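ok so for the tutorial part 2 we go from a plain amino acid sequence to predicted structure tokens. step 1 is just haveing the sequence, like this:
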Amino acid sequence: MSHPQTILIAGGGIGGITLALACLKYGFKVEIFEQAPVLGEIGAGVQISPAGMRVLDALGLKDRILAECYNPVGREMIVWNTGYRTSTPTRSEEVIARYGYPHVTMHRADLHNILVDVLEDNPNVTIHLNAKVAGFEEHGDGVTLHLADGRKFSGTALVGADGLHSAVRRQHIGPSKPQFTGGISWRGLIPIETLPEEVRPKYAQNWVGTNGHFVVYPIRRGELVNIVGHKNRDDWQVESWTTLGTTEEISNDFAGWHSTIQTLIRAIEKPYKWALFLHPTLQSWSKGRVTLLGDACHPTLPYLASGANMAIEDGYVLARCLRHFDGNVEAAFKRYEELRIPRTTDIVNASAGNLKRFRHPDLGDPESAKRYVDSEAIEQRDTREWLFTYDATRVAI
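step 2 — the prediction. this is what the tokens look like for a chain of 397 residues:
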């Protein structure tokens, strides 16, 4: 590019920062607008698949990720009350041999910090904090972003990477109309040294039941255990990650579950809860010089461990499209949609489908439960094939 274009990015989360790093790699200037007073992430776990790792490796971050993550021995499905484990769990060495990269688990803040550390060393990026988006307007050769405090910033294009409650999406496409799933999720962190040796997980575990499931995996080099407990409940319908619950409440939600689950619940320092909603998929993300990325355009249920990976893939593919169609933002955004909407729609739908697969009537009887989890383990391998083989760094632009 003879004159670097400036890409405005609303949102400084994992997707927005990945996009910024990819844009910088391809010669763009970047301005990031984050409404929080600091760049940071909430205290929760995240899984990075081989598809996500390909992008992070292309950005030169593989070694730093591997130094901060946890690489589980493997992945197993477990029956909620008996503790029966999948007879043939997926082992990490098999994943690496097949896909070239591991499927790792991390603290979201650790991943975000790695991305930000690299970003802040680049002179072609400007980060604006306390920068709440109020709206935007397009003009002949660019777009102007309006902040709630009255400031205005202009650039070549605007990307709304501002999450589930995206202000850019609200003006760009209109508000989302989600459907309540009838369930809630709990999340929490446990220092692993506080747990008895026999319940310290080495595998990434998915405990499945008749009316809920419980995900357990270590993060931060194995120093913490991340839990996410999903339960059918219709009395709580607040879509927020920051509502603090109580140990008694989450324990009651999983009454009758295996003693390992009860031990984990008692060890959670702060249990948080949020209601789960299914958001409709979109047929278009872009208009003119404005597009969307990550949860702003394809929020998903947390049943396929793919939310962060989708945003990471989005960021890299979008930057490649902007570079390929140098100077033609509309063409770049059109190709970005063509490449990303089919894949993200498939992931959103597959994740929603797991709502019933992980809560199944066959899991109520010990013998049928054994057969069910063993057959589901095979099904999950088929799903991983199309999830993990995708390569955002090489997909044809």
